[in-house]
Amino acid sequence: MALGRTTTTALDGITARLVTVEANVGPGLPGISVVGLGDASVREARYRLRTAVANAALDWPKSKIVLSLSPADLPKRGSHFDLAMCLAVLAARHPGADARLRDVVVLGELGLDGSVRAVTGVLPSVLAAARENKATVLVPPGNQEEAALAEGIDVLVAPSLEAAWAWACGSPVLHRARPGIPGTSAGVPDFADLAGQHDARWATEVAAAGGHHMFLTGPPGSGKSMLAERLPGILPPLSRAEALEVGAIRSVAGVSTDRAMLTVPPLSAPHHTVTRAGLLGGGSGHPSPGAVTHAHHGVLFLDEVSEIPAATLDCLRTPLEHRRIVLQRGNRSTVFPSRFQLLLAANPCRCAAENPGDCTCTVAERRNYLSNLSGPLLDRIDMIVRTTGKGGVVSTEGAEASAVIAARVAEARGRAARRWGNAARNSDVAGPYLRRHAPADDTGMALVEAHLAVGDITQRGVDRALRLAWTICDLAGRDRPDLDHVARALELRGSQLEVRAA
């Protein structure tokens, strides 16, 4: 009997775990058995392996082969196991190749012609290999740009089974993965394209500076979607750690990842018919990330929010508070990150009249139009902003560009970071700490207490109003929120009654 080993990975959420592939070639009737809790794509690999080896003119054992994927209790899915399993079988009778492959992580799907095709989840797999101090990773040509984003590990590109086997046998025929061209934010829409809407533009700047959630309401064509699309362009660029997390999410979802995508916070904008599984993530046996995870370190934009069922919207309350999603499937839990800014948008009513006097809806229709927005969800929204379709301007001449606004946002976030330390955003500061150690001045706190006493805001609303006041204070370059900052914060927060009557 002969035994060959390689290493590959199995995805668990947006992280990867190393999987040892063992191939035992011994006496018995010719055939391949794959054990280790693999799905259909893993079990079907035995047909691809034999055909690829034959077309690559390599020697396939004419005996019984048992392939084991361990740990055996970890579910394994995907076609990226192909190349690792094939090399393990070939190395079982070649001690030199087996020794070289022991410290190598192998990824790639095999075509019947022996070519190595791109797969999903390469970036988290390479990061896992680096974390476990593996020396080398073999990746398909189609994944080399995202694989090259990882540091501290040698990433080689295997274009074919024949080339990968030649390298395992000692021939230096594989080149290192080449990173993509560093990207810019040129593809992000610019605020200079947006005419008018001075108040809404300023509110969006406040949201960006403090990481606040916002609800936009206004008639069709008043710029709600334009504001949402431009919000990522004024947010600070992603740090390297954040960029790798965003890249890992895209990689798991099968979205191409390059450096241009990793410089600007992502924008996730699902259609209003999105289901709870589409919003939070899900799937049978192997959950996939949902829209809230695709918005991680970025913006989740829900347009036409009046059309989204209340049960779906209320699912956002947990990720808004805990910034992660935990999906339970059988006896296994999958965790997806979900740290995002929520941006909602809706028309004022079904007929979309801006003024109540022009509305053709019945009283019941107008009252129930936004009834799917529950009180607890609205209480987690920091700002309620109205856009207008009247009194605007046609020309965009003189409108501020995103770069100018982004500079002010960066300066405000810098002030917050210096003040709070680890928490770079005002929205991250704990409410008890804020009230005890960083309140507004006496007149500002008196105004907050007055609104709390008459029920205009909740206790959670007090914390959110203070965070908002600190953001306005930072944009103004002041040291402590005063009465004006608190008043503007309370005005931006609005109230649930105002939303219902919008």
From TrEMBL:
It comes from the Bacteria. Residues 210-388 form the AAA+ ATPase domain. InterPro entries: AAA+_ATPase, CHLI-like, Mg_chelat-rel, Mg_chelat-rel_C, Mg_chelatse_chII-like_cat_dom, P-loop_NTPase, Ribosomal_Su5_D2-typ_SF, Ribsml_uS5_D2-typ_fold_subgr. GO terms for molecular function: ATP binding. SUPFAM superfamilies: P-loop containing nucleoside triphosphate hydrolases, Ribosomal protein S5 domain 2-like. Belongs to the Mg-chelatase subunits D/I family. ComM subfamily. This is ATPase. It comes from Corynebacterium doosanense CAU 212 = DSM 45436.
